[in-house]
Amino acid sequence: MIKNITCVTCPMGCSVNVEISETGEIISITGNTCKRGDLYARNEVTHPKRSLATTVRVEGGVYNVVPCKSSEDLPKEKIFDCMQAINSARVNAPVKLGDILVADVCGTGVNIIATNHCPAK
Amino acid sequence: MLNYDLVVVGGGPAGMAAAIKARECGIDSILILERAEALGGILEQCIHTGFGLQYFGEQLSGPEYADRFIELVNEKKIEYKLDTMVLDVTEDKTVYAVNKKDGLLEIKAKAVILAMGCRERPRGALNIAGTRASGIMTAGTAQKYVNIDGYMPGKKVVILGSGDIGLIMARRMTLEGAKVECVCELMPYSSGLTRNIVQCLNDFDIPLYLSTTVIDIQGKDRVTGVTIAGVDENRCPIPGTERTIECDTLLLSVGLIPENELTKNAGIGLDRVTNGAIVDEYRETDHEGIFACGNVLHVHDLVDFVTQESQIAGEGAARYILGKKGSPEYITTKGVGAVRYIVPQKVNIKNEGDVNLFFRVGSTFKNATVKVTYNGETLITRKRPRLAPGEMENVTIKNEMLKGFAGGGVIEITVEA
C-alpha cells in the first residue's frame, strides 16, 4: 500500500509517498526533499505528532495571556488533553520568553514554554 | 523640529530589518515610528510556528521571530517611538506624527523607509448581503482577540476565504473549543499553503468547500447563520445550490491590501496590481530618498522574505544618505500573460551586484517553464515543477547580464505550461 502524505514540517509542503507492506512495515519513503520530511512521514504512518502553539493565562500582567508552544512535537491524539491542561494553568507576571509554563504536559515529557515576554502590570 | 538621517514608518518585521541593516551600513541617526504599543507588528499575534525556517533555519513562532529583531534594535540602540501615528510624509521627506507624550512631531529626514504593512479586506469590500449583526469580523481581528486579549469571539464558526490566516484561525478556534463548521473558498483552489490545509483543516476534519461563497448573513443582534452557495466559472452563485449553516460567527480571510495611504498622499506612484509603490532594485520609490519594503510594497507569503527585502531597502537608504547612489540608468520589468506582477518594477543597470526579480502568477501550473526576455530576446529559461498564485517566485539577473543592457530596455517574464 502507498500512503500519500503532505509534509507539514516547513512551508514547502512536500508530497511524500510512503510504501507500506502488508505487515505494516515501511518499505520506502519518496518525494521528500530533506531529512525532516523522511522523519515526518515515518512518524505520520506509525505515531503522528504535532507541534502545539497556544496561550496561557497570566495573573497581574500587561496582557491577559502569554503565547506558548510545545518544546517538542506532541502525540497527535493527546493534543486536546494538553489544551485542557494548558488552559487550566495560571502563571504570574512577569513572564520571560523561554520560561517553562507547564512542565511535562499530560505526562508526555514535553514542556510548554513561553514564546513572548509578558511584563507585570 | 527633529532631525534624523533615516525615519522608518512602522516597527514590524519590515521596519525593524530595514533599520538594523541601515545601522549596519553606517547610518547612526535612525528613528522608527510605530503605531502600536510594542515593536513586532502583526507577528505579535501570530503565535503559531513556522516562521524563520528560511532566515534562521529553525521553527519559530511569530513573537519569537519578532523578538530576535527587537533585541537587535535595542542592542544597536536604534531609537523608536511607540504609540505614535504617522499622519503625513511630504515630498521633501518631512514626517508628521502624533503621540500622547510628544504631541505633534515634525521630523526632517534625509531618507524615509515606508514599512506600514498591510491590512485585511473587510466585509464592506465584498458586498455580502444580509444583516449587520455582531459576530462578523476578519480572521486577523479574531486572532488578536484570542491570542493577545485572551477571549473567544464565538462558538460556532464559518470561515470565508482559505488564505493562510483563515486556515490558521480554523485550527486555533477549534483548539480553544469552538466548532468550525466549514471554510468556504470562492476560487477552485485554496490560496493557503498545502501544509496549512493538512494541519489546520484535515487534522480536525473541518470541511473545505471550494468554488463556494457566502451569499447571505442572518441574525438581528448576533449572527445566527449564513447562507452559502456554489459558484460557476465566473464566480457567480449557482441557483439551487444554496444552503444555510447555523453559526454565531463569520470570519473573513479574503485577502490583504498594502496600507498605502501615506504613500498616496506623498504622491508616490503605485503599481495597479501590487497596490504598492513602484520601486527600483533597492526598493526606492519614484520619490528620491523614499523607500518601501515588506507587505506595504507587495504582500509576501513568508516573513522571512519580508526580512530579506527590507534589508535591501535598508541598504539602499544607507547608500542614498551616504551619497553612494550615483546617477542610475533604468530598465523596466514587465510581467506578461500569467505573470501578474514583478517587483522591482525597474532596475538600475549600473548596479554592482546580481538582482533578484520577484513575481507572482495568476493561476496554477505544473511543469511550467519560466522565460525571461530582454527586449524580446530570451535570457533565461527555468523549469518549475509547480507554480501557484499563493507562492512568490523569483529569478536572478546576473550582474554580467545587467552590464550588457542599455537604459530604457525592457525585461519581460512569461510562463509557459
Summarize the structure.
Chain A is of the alpha+beta class and 121 residues long.
Tell me about this structure.
The complex is a heterodimer of chains A (121) and B (417). Chain A has helices at residues 35-46, 79-87, and strands at 2-6, 15-20, 26-30, 49-50, 53-59, 65-70, 74-75, 90-92, 100-102, 112-114. Chain A is an alpha+beta fold and 121 residues long. Chain A has a 5-stranded mixed β-sheet. In chain A, strands 1-2-3 form a 3-stranded antiparallel β-sheet, covered by helices on one side. Chain A has a two-stranded antiparallel sheet with strand order 4-7. Chain A is elongated. By secondary structure, chain B is α/β, with parallel strands linked by helices. Chain B folds into 3 domains: 1-119 and 256-326, FAD/NAD(P)-binding domain (3-Layer(bba) Sandwich), CATH 3.50.50.60; 122-254, FAD/NAD(P)-binding domain (3-Layer(bba) Sandwich), CATH 3.50.50; 328-417, Immunoglobulin-like, CATH 2.60.40. In chain B, 21% of the residues lie in helices and 35% in strands. Classes of the chains: A alpha+beta (121), B alpha/beta (417).
Q: How do the strands and helices of this protein lay out in sequence?
A:
The complex is a heterodimer of chains A (121) and B (417).
Chain A: E1 2-6, E2 15-20, E3 26-30, H1 35-46, E4 49-50, E5 53-59, E6 65-70, E7 74-75, H2 79-87, E8 90-92, E9 100-102, E10 112-114
Parallel strand pairs in A: 5-8
Antiparallel strand pairs in A: 1-2, 2-3, 4-7, 5-6, 6-10, 9-10
Chain B: E1 2-9, H1 13-24, E2 30-33, E3 49-51, E4 60-61, H2 62-75, E5 79-81, E6 85-89, E7 94-99, E8 103-114, E9 118-120, E10 129-130, E11 136-138, H3 139-149, E12 156-160, H4 164-175, E13 179-184, H5 194-201, E14 208-209, E15 212-218, E16 225-230, E17 243-246, E18 249-252, E19 256-258, H6 261-265, E20 290-292, H7 303-321, E21 330-335, E22 339-343, E23 346-348, E24 355-361, E25 365-374, E26 377-387, E27 393-397, H8 399-403, E28 410-416
Parallel strand pairs in B: 1-2, 1-8, 2-5, 8-20, 10-15, 11-18, 12-13, 12-18, 13-14, 21-28
Antiparallel strand pairs in B: 3-4, 6-7, 7-8, 9-19, 15-16, 16-17, 21-23, 22-24, 24-27, 25-26, 25-28
Helix pairs in contact in B: 1-2, 1-7, 3-4, 4-5
